[in-house]
Specification:
With about 900 residues, the chain is an alpha/beta fold. Among the domains are: about 140 residues, Rossmann fold (3-Layer(aba) Sandwich), CATH 3.40.50.261; about 80 residues, ATP-grasp fold, A domain (Dna Ligase, domain 1, 2-Layer Sandwich), CATH 3.30.1490.20; about 180 residues, Aminopeptidase (3-Layer(aba) Sandwich). The chain is about 35% helix and about 25% strand. The chain is built from 29 helices and 38 strands. It has an eight-stranded mixed β-sheet with strand order 31-32-33-34-35-36-38-37, with helices on both faces. It has a seven-stranded mixed β-sheet with strand order 9-8-11-10-12-13-14, sandwiched between helices. Strands 15, 16, 17, 18, 19 and 20 form a six-stranded parallel β-sheet that branches. Helix 2 links the parallel strand 1 and strand 2. The longest helix has 21 residues.
Length: about 900
């Protein structure tokens, strides 16, 4: 991931158009005209091989004839000369280019990229509409209309879609900070742009039109960072274009690329909308009120039907109407006719004039329980729509003039001709306006969905019931054994054995070669159970029930033997091509209150492993009650996955049945996600059925598909899992035995006691302030980290069985993943015991193993203890040129690499 030189692309001071033309209707002419008429304050140069006058501006014949270096080149030349143009721009000092030219593929594309690599010249495109930066007046595109300046960024893989939304937005007064057409995204992609915009102050919200993601880990890491700072709304094309494949499991058959995108967007806090109209609605509301963080709505209307439709649509998106207080109802009674609705929606009756609208709006805005208002007007012959619009604006503007808080107000003035002037007025006064109540509710719902999603991501997981224990070595041995025998499918017993290595309960299974051995196995099983289950054992038969390969409730050894003979004969007749490895015998699990579920994993081409959960049984593909999530999971994420299915309702107590043990189910899904994360050989995994009831969970059948030996493992995980390999045990003076491990979200609960034992002066030396506000949001930022970009190691001790946080060291890498800033803090009562030294060595070793080129930090000059330790660790110490009270410390080159050897 890199944002290097993106400021030359997105905030250029000078621009050159290579391929400018005077030919009417050509791309070179349209782009030149747009650039010259956009109001850009920097220098604009036109390059044309004949040195013509273009749009009233003299061009130069070549890039090396430019009178000065430029930051950004816009390229509209023929495809075959583009690599040379990029090379010339690099030599001339440019560090970014927008390649509008199409037809650059294969070797020509590679030549283009190589031409700019020496100076890290960033390339947007090729095959794109161009770049529009309204906030600085740069329109380097061939769009037919220029966007209005605003604070919404729009990134799109479709140039045609950009022209549509820009045209729509211009008529509505919706402004943009950045409009970027990615085209084929040979270099600059969504991940790069999201990373840049996350820290950009000119954009308050981001809209995405996505067709595909090429680098999922980079995209998700950047999207997570961006969504934490501002709303990110995405529309994904191709929702039903699932890839065709021969799935070897239920999980594989039910997984589609769109479900992976859905899971990915949800995991990092992006809000997905399904239609372009919803993206327009989101743009409308984001342009006016990007900080809307409420969920209740108060509807004011002169038409009862319109109010009811709004309330219905609100219920569809799980929104809530505001409950009006008795005081508010009494205040409205005093100004409205007796026939008003006496409730929310507030129907002020069809004969309402401007005065009634104004009085009602004034009362609503003053009501403490009201969060957000939707004002609706149905046109009548009694009063012009423009007058009612002016009426609701009056109390809003009065509150603004008096510096009183103004609650968010959305508007819907129904009709066409009658409402047109009213909508223009609302745009002038920065109120979101929509053509229908449904559109307004969709816009409201999109933004509240963003804040709900952010709150959900900031939740602290429940403390896990002890450390999870996994037998990774045993699991690896099972997988290796199958690969060494040339098998890509584990047998049922092997699959179950694999699950047990990660603590997932299974029904014990015995293997029999033939009917006679099945009878002997049944004798043993029937000593502990009143019935047996018999199944065919074959690597070639994915779904045993399809060939009569499952028999239940067999109560005697003789019955098992007869069923075995019949099963072998039937299977051989129906599937003569299948290899029959024998039979399995297991106890009949009788749990009458249990719910049949399915859990599993398959591999998505873009996002790698994806976990599936839903209603199980033989009709799983017909019912299709499933949900997906990206691994690894924690207990909260697993619980959310369960909650997104209809079958989850059956887990609750109903009709005399006790509630199922949902905690055991969530833990099983977490364990499954770590099995998937730890073993890239696993390509598909099915647990079906997975039974759950009040007593817990148990897997009755399992199937695992693995990669062939020596074959490249699956697509890497999109989200970096918990790096368990970086745990260590040390001994520290008075602290005794100390465990160092990567931080986890549930560690938030440890910070309260930790900060109580950090003195104010030590806090100031670490945070450069007296004491940070220990809000949930602040602590969540410390503990819920992206292991792909950040790392934090905590030092823990156990006192009377309770974990105590003793110290923490943190590393935050730049977007290029070349350098990283460190920070360390230990309890004040443990200073001088060597804990800080151990933590620093641990994090430096991690940085070296990650291939980082530099670790640096900023230290107060008075913090002599830290500066001394830095020198001993090999850091260079320099005075900060911008602040004499600060010291810059850095460790790089061979000094950093030496920590790979454990120095």
């Amino acid at each position: 991931m890199t944002v290097r030189n993106l400021d030359y692309l997105l905030a250029p001071r000078s621009v050159a158009l290579i391929g400018a033309s005077d030919r009417e209707g050509s791309v070179g002419q349209i782009v030149a005209r747009n650039m010259l008429e956009g109001g850009f304050g920097g220098a604009i140069h036109l390059v044309n091989p004949k040195g013509k006058m273009i749009c009233g501006r003299q061009s130069v014949r070549s890039i090396d004839a430019l009178p000065e270096p430029v930051d950004l080149g816009i390229v509209v030349t023929p495809a075959e000369v583009v690599p040379g143009v990029i090379g010339d721009l690099a030599k001339a000092g440019a560090r970014a280019a927008v390649v509008i030219t199409a037809g650059i593929r294969g070797e020509l594309r590679d030549q283009m990229l190589r031409a700019g690599q020496g100076v890290c010249l960033r390339i947007q495109g090729p095959n794109c509409l161009g770049l529009m930066l309204p906030c600085i007046g740069l329109n380097a595109s061939f769009a037919h209309v220029a966007p209005v300046a605003g604070d919404v960024a729009f990134l799109s893989q479709s140039g045609a879609l950009i022209t549509g939304i820009v045209d729509w937005a211009a008529s509505r007064g919706v402004g943009f900070s950045h409009v970027v057409s990615l085209g084929n995204a040979a270099d600059v992609d969504f991940g790069d742009l999201l990373d840049y915009l996350a820290g950009d102050r000119t954009s308050h919200a981001i809209l995405l039109y996505v067709e595909s993601i090429s680098n999922a880990p980079k995209f998700l890491s950047a999207a997570r960072r961006a969504a934490r700072s501002k709303p990110v709304i995405v529309v994904k094309a191709g929702r039903h274009a699932t890839g065709a494949k021969a799935a070897l499991s239920h999980t594989g058959a039910l997984a589609g690329s769109d479900s992976a995108y859905d899971a990915a967007f949800r995991r990092v806090g992006l809000v997905r909308v399904k239609e372009l109209g919803e993206l327009f609605d989101a743009a409308e509301i984001l342009a006016r009120m990007p900080k809307l963080a409420v969920e209740t709505l108060t509807v004011l209307t002169n038409g009862g039907g319109a109010g009811v439709l709004a309330a219905d649509r609100l219920a569809d998106i799980d929104g809530r109407l505001t409950t009006l207080s008795p005081d508010t109802i009494a205040a409205l009674d005093a100004i409205l006719p007796p026939t008003w609705s006496k409730n929310n929606p507030i129907d002020i009756i069809g004969d309402a004039g401007a005065d009634r609208y104004e009085a009602a709006m004034e009362t609503i805005l003053a009501a403490p329980e009201v969060d957000t208002v939707l004002a609706i007007n149905c046109p009548t012959a009694l009063v012009p729509s423009i007058e009612t619009a002016e009426a609701i604006l009056k109390p809003i503007e009065e509150r603004r003039a008096a510096s009183k808080p103004v609650k968010p107000v959305l508007t819907t003035w129904l009709g066409d001709t009658a409402a047109r002037e009213a909508r223009k007025l609302f745009v002038q006064h920065h109120l979101p306006t929509f053509e229908t109540p449904a559109d307004a509710i969709k816009g409201f719902g999109t933004l509240t969905a963003y804040f709900r999603g952010q709150q959900a991501l900031m939740r602290t997981p429940h403390q896990a019931p002890g450390e999870y224990e996994f037998n990774r070595d045993r699991a690896k041995a099972i997988l290796d054994a199958a690969a060494q025998h040339g098998r890509t499918m584990l047998t049922e017993p092997e699959s179950k054995a694999l699950l047990t290595t990660y603590g997932i309960p299974v029904a014990t299974t015995m293997v029999a070669k033939d009917a006679r051995e099945a009878r002997a196995a049944a004798v043993e099983v029937l000593q502990i159970s009143d019935a047996c289950v018999l199944k065919i054992l074959s690597q070639d038969i994915s779904h045993k029930s399809d060939v009569g390969g499952v028999r239940l409730s067999l109560t005697t050894p003789e019955e098992v033997e007869r069923a075995a003979n019949d099963m072998l004969e039937r299977t051989g007749r129906l599937r003569p091509d299948a290899r029959i490895d024998g039979l399995t015998v297991q106890a009949m699990i009788r749990r009458p209150d249990a719910v049949e579920l399915i859990a599993g994993m398959s591999v998505d081409q873009s996002f790698g492993p994806i976990v599936m959960f839903g209603a199980g049984g033989t009709s799983v593909e017909v019912v299709k009650d499933i949900a997906h999530a990206l691994p690894p999971l924690d207990l909260l994420l697993a619980d959310d996955l369960i909650g997104r299915t209809r079958v989850s309702r059956l887990l609750e107590a109903h009709r005399g049945k006790p509630a199922a043990n949902r905690a055991a189910l969530t833990e099983a899904l977490v364990r499954l996600s770590y099995l998937v994360a730890d073993h890239p050989e696993i390509l598909e995994l099915d647990i079906n059925p997975l039974l759950v009831d009040a007593d817990g969970v148990i897997a009755l059948d399992a199937r695992v598909h693995v990669a062939e030996e020596g074959v490249q493992p699956r697509t890497p995980m999109a989200i970096r899992p918990y790096p368990s390999g970086w745990e260590a045990d040390i001994e520290i003076g008075r602290a005794g035995d100390v465990h160092i491990r990567p931080i986890r979200p549930e560690d938030e609960v440890l910070y309260g006691d930790f900060f109580k034992l950090v003195e104010a002066d030590d806090m100031r030396l670490r945070f450069f302030m007296a004491r940070p506000h220990l809000s949930h949001a602040f602590l969540a930022r410390l503990t819920q980290i992206d292991y792909a970009r950040e790392m934090a190691f905590v030092a823990l001790s156990k006192s009377e069985g309770e974990e105590k946080l003793l110290g923490v060291v943190r590393l935050i890498a730049d977007a290029d993943y070349e350098s990283a800033e460190y920070a360390v803090l230990v309890r004040s009562d443990l200073k001088g015991e060597g804990l800080g030294w151990e933590l620093m060595q641990h994090v430096i070793g991690y940085a070296a193993s990650e291939g980082l080129q530099e670790v640096f930090g900023t230290v107060l000059a008075e913090n002599t203890t830290m500066l001394k330790m830095c020198r001993q660790l090999g850091f260079e110490v320099m005075v900060d040129p911008e602040d004499q009270m600060l010291r810059r410390v850095r460790l790089r080159g061979e000094a950093l690499k030496s920590y790979l050897a454990g120095n």
